[in-house]
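Hey, can you fold this one?
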Amino acid sequence: MNTTKIVEGVFAINKPKSISSAQALRDIQQAFNQSKLFAPWLETERSKRVEESKRQRSRRRDKRLQVKLGHGGTLDPMATGVLIVGVGKGTKHLQNFLTCTKTYEAAVLFGAATDTYDVLGRVLSKAPYRHLTRDTIEAALHKFRGSIKQKPPLYSALRMDGKRLYEYAREGKEIPREIQERPVTTESLEIREWLPAGCHPYTWPKEEAGKEDKDVADKILHLGAALEDGSVEAPQTDDPLETKAPIGSKRRRDIDDEEDAELGITSVNKRRELSPTPVMSGAKQEPPKIQSEAPGGPTHTAAASPVENQSRSGERPSPTGPPAARLSMTVTSGFYVRSLCHDLGQEVGSLGIMSDLSRTRQADFELGRNVIEYDDLRKPEDVWAPMVEQALNDWNLKMSDDSKEDTPNSPAAV
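Sure. Predicted structure:
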């Protein structure tokens, strides 16, 4: 490791669950600030600041001397996968990663809709799901391939009349007008695995939205109309363990969207995001539940005891509950995986929420190939420094090669 060389550029990490993209950057920045690898960069930056005019110094928002970092597109706290990190001058190239294609693997859980379109939200409605099969889902996917129109979630950072959509949602206010669909492209979309009831760890959220919030959401999402089109009535639950939010209560959700290009580049030196409440899809689950649906009546959900789970013959009864599916997709910028899960649920005569998400590729960065594990960056410097230096060198070499190919007189251009 060359301790006098200034290293900067772009590399990628595998972000774990339960932390925001901004928090991941702050953790990395703390390690870089104290390292020998980035000491030359900090020294150069210190010299530049000494030569700055008084006006330049006064205009600098962050007076602290820190390694400059940014990322090329956020990931939700609940999501894992490729998070591209720019260092120093590398932050100037991050805008390019907001418009590139990305590959995701997601799990959609059927039978319920939430205000956030994922398992972090509050339940707005429930719908039948026992008619769903792998063939049903595969047949519906064709509608979401190619060039399509997609409506962003209410909990997103898009602006309407100068105000973020999620701000309307948090305040329980109706948005001024319908959220407009936006053109996006799905280059590929496949079902990787069908997960019948009892064969997956995903569960609906326990918290249910209050009536006032449901009424506001229904005017935007039209869930009632969707259920009527299916000629079925959404089952209700009288689960005593289910928490119902008081009317008018608000749900705060960290807007760290996995696919929202509107957020732009998030730099640690420019913006601090809200600290999310850690929610992990792999966290400790509630006891398994048995659902029974009486003909024409509501669905009753009760905690299953070991005795109740055991049949007289000594074998366990067939599992019940909503099915799920794992999807793989390659999409363009501006695509919302949460919206896909929501829309797919309605398309198959049910409802759906995103219950897991991993970004496996973004541009040329791909898990298992050239992405550094986040946990490695929390180890001593002699462990992570060679990996980071090599990754930055590789990126700079690639940029140099690409620049030569773009030169008019280069062999590649002739």
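Residues 228-252, 254-318, 407-414 have pLDDT under 50 and may be disordered. Let me know if you want another pass with a different chain boundary.
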